[in-house]
Here is the input.
Amino acid sequence: MILTIETKSRTELQDITSLIQNAIQRKGVLDGICFVYVPHTTAAVTINESADPDVKDDIIEVINKLIPWQANYRHLEGNSAAHIKTSIIGTSELIAVENGKLVLGTWQGIFFCEFDGPRTRKLHVSFVS
Ligand code: ZN
Here is the structure.
């Protein structure tokens, strides 16, 4: 299934855990694997702490420092930083599903990572039962 994600900033980590959990319920998956895939070159997906929102803000701050928007990039579109961030973070995650629930640690959440927003994005969610 394809979900739509609306992002609001150039760089943003959006918690999509409940969105994915809802997709599992809608599909009626009880046990298997959930494959989350971002079909974009300037957006990614990652799993990290969702309990304290400061963690995602720290991730954004550090990744922006490591990969500045302005540098001697060749790519004429002007968004090389977003492409590089996407390759570093990655465009997919695999998460186990047990008893109809995502198997995540107590503090873990799934984040859609926007690196060249705001935009309307697609997110593919597939299941292997
Ligand atoms: Zn580009």
